[in-house]
Design brief:
This protein has 481 residues and is an alpha/beta fold. It has helices spanning 6-16, 20-42, 46-59, 64-77, 80-89, 97-109, 113-125, 131-144, 147-160, 165-177, 181-188, 225-231, 234-242, 255-258, 286-289, 308-319, 345-348, 356-359, 402-408, 420-427, 469-479; strands at residues 204-205, 216-220, 245-250, 266-269, 279-282, 330-335, 364-368, 387-389, 413-416, 432-436, 457-461. The strands form two sheets. It has a six-stranded parallel beta sheet with strand order 8-7-6-9-10-11, sandwiched between helices. It has a five-stranded parallel beta sheet with strand order 1-5-2-3-4, with helices on one face. It is globular, with a radius of gyration of 26 Å.
Amino acid sequence: MFRASHRQKLIFRNSQHEPDAVLNAKLVDITQWANRGSSFQRDGNFAEAVECFREALKLQPENVQLQISLASSLRFSGARPEAIAIGESLLAQSIAPELLMLLGNLHQEEDQFDKAIEYLERALQLSQPTATRLSCLGIAYFRRGDIDHAIELFERSIALQPDYADGHFHLGMALLLQGNYERGWTEYEYRPFGRRRMNGATTAMWQGQSLHANQSLLLVAEQGLGDTLQFVRFAAEVKRRFGCRLLLQAPSKMLPLLSTCAGVDQLISRDESVPKTDFYLPLASLPSCFYWRPGDTPNEFPYLFPEIHRVQFWKRRLSREQPFGNKPRMRVGISWQGYPKFPADRLRSIPLFFFEPLFGLNDIQFVSLQQNFGTEQLDDFRSKSNLVDIGEELDREGGAFLDSIALMRQLDLVITSDTAIAHLAGAAGCKTWLGLSTVPDWRWNLTGNRSVWYPSIELFRQTESGNWASVFDVMRQRLTH
């Protein structure tokens, strides 16, 4: 709870020059507003916390701690530019490590990595290193592309606090990005809901030991849609090795598509009660249990399949789209926008206007696979006769991705940013070009033009941070030859 210290009371009195009775009444109100804001902050209600801290600051505008609390709440409510402005205005009054850490994290989240590192290193110079502070600095170096330095910082954070899960988790992603699977998988198990963080379950965690045919294993899809599409391939390998009964719990909207994957005996939605099983395992822990390495792909591609009647529907639907009076030379599906609230979305999503040089290839028909977020960007390209927007027609009934995967199978190529669409196309065995930032997600590694996870995916990497134009110049050249 926020408490007005004796020193703060003296500051209030000296700065306000008010009678004690008036000052004490004001302090009660400040404390109440601040305590209420702190309570909202702890509960994750950051918009409400912002309003409380603003009310407190009306009563005591120069209170540094309240301004830091306001900036912190603004950070988590999505108003980072205002939070940065408040924080940097305080630097003339305070260079407290807490403020410097806040500013460093804010700049890191705004993709301003040099500035973030400057503040975070100053915070470490002014205070004793902690696991959290070292790890935050490591994240900034990681996102700037200095992976070796980031690994060193994550290792220092773990040495300082061996049970610091976030340090282990970020170390795991950095190692996997570099292709160090031997160490990377172990550290990756410290992710949220990974094997090293799962506590309180009544069913035993499977550790990769041999299973008998009369035993059962529950796999829990604990991460996002793309992760589920990527890791469900290992279900077939579990079945092949052990012949045990295999259950998979996943979002209900994904169950129809996941039912086409070999190896799963029973699908369960997240809102259903789970039957008793001998063991359970987070789905993304399977590659760790199998000590997976590139080249160990456990099953044939594709491993997810469309429904026949949807394939036939989309074949007929596309045949009606002939912008040039006859069948185009190629049909290319495109997707550009991921989930906007994902922390690194601005680095992995690609604004649609970067695709524009491709739209000038008039013998190619482009088919938008984009749904929901990002579709508003199509408004600037309605005049392009060779760009077909059918995103709103996709996956309206039956389950997630059922139309998308059927449509993809009718296309010659899919061009996409790093979203679930990339994983869907790879799992379906569709030829895919994937645009990647200079520091991509760990599963795409730092170098190479082929995916170690999907044989049908070719990787097109930025040569400098933020430069998508050069990526699409290469793609355009490829499409014209």
